[in-house]
Amino acid sequence: MDQTCLQYSLTEEERKQFDETGYLILENALSPEHVSALTKEVDRIFDEHVNDGHDTTKALFHPNFIPDHPLFLDLVDYEKVLPKVWGILGWNIYLYHAHMIVTPPTGQEPSDKTFGWHQDSGRMNIEMETDPRPRMSLKVAYFLSDLSEAGRGNFWIVPNSHLKNTVQRPESGFGQLEGAIPVCVKPGTAVFFDRRLWHTASPNWSDITRKVLFYGYGYRWIRTKDDMTVQSLWDKSDPIRRQLLGAGTNCNGYYTPTDQDVPLREWLKEYAPSQVK
Ligand SMILES: O=C(O)CCC(=O)C(=O)O
To answer: At 17, phi and psi to the nearest 5?
Structure first.
């Protein structure tokens, strides 16, 4: 990994924003050319699913997409983003989950039905007994289509909700959570969000297909949340990327890492010692 990435280290202002609100928006994380190249691969994958019978009016949830193209692999340790991820979570991290979502126009009229609000990680939210629950992981969402207006299948969030274990859902089944907002962003924007932030997908009532890539980073002792068949990529990856793709010397090393388990820590010790905690 090149030291130039350190210019993108998490700033104190960004840390405060993430800690206080549960999310962080990074505009122009991807150049227009980068967005176009990624979009081409997303479109190819969507078309393959359509050829296999996927309904073109339904959202496509496609997990485990890192092996599908080198451009997806390159975002695992993307220099503008990874320093902020380790700035928040520390160095004992890896990519535990990745999914692509394509949300085509539904062709339906807008409705106010309550969306699928949730915190990430399923049973973690029931079996963790603390209040608030611990952070454990975050996701980075790379928005490839234009979501600068609401109604385009936007990602919705409730800012500042990450420390709330429960939220009040409308009993009628209509309306959204109090304080909810659509995240309106341009193509190329990356949005970091704490897994505890209450969030949801929403229907696409526009005529623009929504395209997003989600990269989930968590501690190395968390299990993968999708098949993550990335082991064949280990050999051609540098040590830090290998760590992020789940490599380790043995099971104990996920809990009590040696230097070989966490080359990211070794790299930080050498190039950014103030960031090693
Ligand atoms: O598709 C979206 O906007 C939301 C995705 C989501 O809920 C998730 O990644 O947990």
So the answer is: -60, -45
